[in-house]
Design a protein that fits this description.
This protein is an all-alpha fold. 90% of the residues lie in helices and 0% in strands. It contains two helices and no strands.
């Protein structure tokens, strides 16, 4: 399981917690948390993409 998978699993868990709570403020808190977990997962994906591009550029220089 990659770090991205873990972050997305945490986001899903937060969304599930939001769906089961009756308190509006807790629901909002869980939803905000899910958004942050998803943003962190996207950030890692983008970083990996940039790293692959950089590695390919370096390989072409050799």
């Amino acid at each position: 399981m990659t770090l991205i998978d873990i972050y997305l699993a945490n986001a899903a868990a937060q969304r599930a917690a939001a769906a089961t709570t009756n308190l509006p403020n807790r629901r909002e808190m869980h939803e905000r948390s899910a958004v942050v977990w998803e943003a962190m997962a996207r950030s890692i994906e983008e970083t990996q993409g940039r790293a692959a591009v950089n590695l390919a550029a370096k390989a072409s220089l050799v």
